[in-house]
User: Fold these one by one.
Assistant:
Number 1:
Amino acid sequence: MSKISKDDFVPGFVPNHNHGSVDYTSVAGGHVHQCLDVTSPPIQSQDHNHIHYTEGYVVFENGHTHHYKAYSGPAIPVGKGMHVHHYDFYTSENDGHKHRVRGVDQPAPGNK
């Protein structure tokens, strides 16, 4: 079995991949948090697509942090044998507020 690099064209589904993302939360309570994330391996769906699960904490800021648990949207092909996922979720409430985190994760091999 050959190794797949992040720059290889890969048609179809690549098992056991994950995605990373670096984003900021929405402003709440007069501040933002950075959200550094790596997803779970893919979870195949009945429509022959897949999603990813993630959970973690945003970076400590303004004296507190927030936890999150979320699922991505389905795979979105972006060309060159790569795909991404959209995410949109809210953190836990802490210090009287919560934050929204949304965006697109980093591309991974496979166009499905």
Number 2:
Amino acid sequence: MPTINLRNVEKSYGGNAANAVSDLDLEIGDGEFMCLLGPSGCGKTTTLRMIAGLEHLSGGEIQVGERKVDSVHAGIFIPPEKREMGLVFQSYALWPHLTIERNTDFGLRLRKVPKAEREERVEKVMRTLGIEQYRNRYPSQLSGGQQQRVALARMLAVNPEVLLLDEPLSNLDARLRLEMRAELKRLHNEFKTTIVFVTHDQWEAMTLATTIAVMSEGRLQQVGTPNDIYDRPANRFVAEFVGNPPINILELEGAASNGLGKAMRSYLSERFPALHDIASLGVRPEAVRFTTDASEVREGSFSAPAHVAGILPTGGSWIIEMVTHGHKIFAVTHESPDIAAGADVTLWIKPKALHAFDGKGNRNESADAAFCPPKAR
């Protein structure tokens, strides 16, 4: 499978509107499962459509393997049907008058694949996706999840070098989405196809992708593995967008700072006096600890008295809402808490759980080294 390279890619629809995509440099490796993640309007679907050839670039170029498929400077544009890519939309786009088998082999018939080979490939992909028993039914006779499998089977049957998926699971209910995520993961492992998957669902990206590209307002914010994105967010946008419950943000500067920010500033100046240019700190809820016995606080950790405002059970875990210095802090525990709403506790946070950001919202790398020195990693 080829590597896809996007270099200085831009997309503008003219007028006074901001670019849909700006100065995008992105490499999608051979056999990679890349998720384009971000809120609505961030440019992820536009990027996918440019890779597919459904949108012309306003600037830059896209190269697939050794072949340039779109280049403004060189005046090159390879049409979608010649890019050897499969595209699955949010809507299934199945032919209602064709059986499931005919829907699945539709692309192979267009390519005039010999009958014996066509039947063999259709049989294999239908069996892999568990839809062979529906071969003589019509799309209206299948559930949403089954129709989604047919749409995937139609693309996989033609064996595309690249499979492009535009929020294909958003129309499914929660259970079917979970099943289809597992299905997609298995298919990627089996077929080794390069997959580019657009989603606004962070957990979809975290569970499916080998690599995630986070976008905001048409610009790339960070590229990395799911663990990279979650554990070392490049900036505040990534930190706040990825995570449920969202990351706790402690403002240390400006009008948004409060008593908790002052307490944290005092802690940092005492324990890490060499650190500068920290405007805010992020703490994941699962990294926030609490206890009714202050002697249990780990030495060197930040601590503060807190009041438990609420306990929210979510099934396998509990969200603890605490108030300290007039600021809300959320913690997550996977063990049933032995406290009740209204209790007074001490919350504490290990320094290595702190994510430091500068005044522009970018990650402060020197703080990482101070909070978690190599020997403690």
Number 3:
Amino acid sequence: MKSKMSLVAGVVLGTALVCIIAFLRYTLYLTSRNKRESRVRLEKFLEDYKAIRPTRYTYADIKKITDDFNEKLGEGSYGTVYKGRLSSEIYVAVKVLRDSKGKGEEYINEIGTIGRIHHVNVVLLLGFCADGFRRALIYEYLPNDSLERFILPVSSSTGSVSVISWNKLQHIALGTARGIEYLHQGCDQQILHFDIKPQNILLDHNLNPKICDFGLAKLCSKEKSAITMTAARGTIGYIAPEVLSRNFCKVSHKSDIYSFGMLLLEMVGGRINMDAKTNNHCKVNSLEWIYRHLEKGEESKIRIEEEGDATIVRKIAIVGLWCIQWHPVDRPSIKEVTQMLEGDGSHLNLSPNPFMATDKPKLNASPHGEDLDVILEIK
């Protein structure tokens, strides 16, 4: 009896081991196949891409360009950016990506999207590296870093003054809007960025803004204005409500408008003079504060330094508040945003309060004459 039970146990154990080994071999096969497919897909894309301009470099070239990664400019979840130069006069920023997830969609996305764009307010892609699984992107070098460094909150207790004028901030806001307008309306296909934020607005030596980081961008037809997505994308604090919840509203170019509105309000919110004892205001509280003061017409606590600054502040704040309306159909188009920023702002009306509790989503007619039809993104 024991012999028979031992035999059965041996058969069961042997069968289990065979199944485990088969499963592991199949998993290894799938992993290896996915890596091969990813590499073949990338190589095919790059082969087709040769005629579109940016130069392809080897990893050895990248090491030489960056002087063996000598000077780091920044680091993020995507990888690390180093300063380099192509010649004695041409400096560049080299983004070295960490191991890409999936099939390298973000890398292909960035090259395929930004590589064919040439606009004064969009960063220029000069080259790329796809040497095995080592990947990098080479951009024009912009010496003034990003907008983020110029809109940090200032404290009245320190007596510090802003390092950039309101007139220049208005110039940056308008230039960024023109860049987004080009992406939405000036390209062969509409480009939705999905990650508009201060860190992705780079500034050249004259503080001219240039939109960067197109890893999350999507292409869609210009004839339609909404897009289907399988997952939320972007940066918390700048993501439109409809991107966070697919049950809310249709994702469209209006999602970029929302992010841009948060950027505009952060420009204003970063200049609020807060007493050191109350400097624990969160971002949302400061935005609500901006709306309440505009609504009541009370004296602003925004740091004002020159004549005309108050007018600029009011205009940027009102445009930002229109952009972050809860329902996409209530937000202006980027063309309307640009026109508002170009004007003197004297005729701008305050938007409805975007911080009040909202009712059910509005999915129908838009006051701006748009009907957001759902479409599939262009691959």
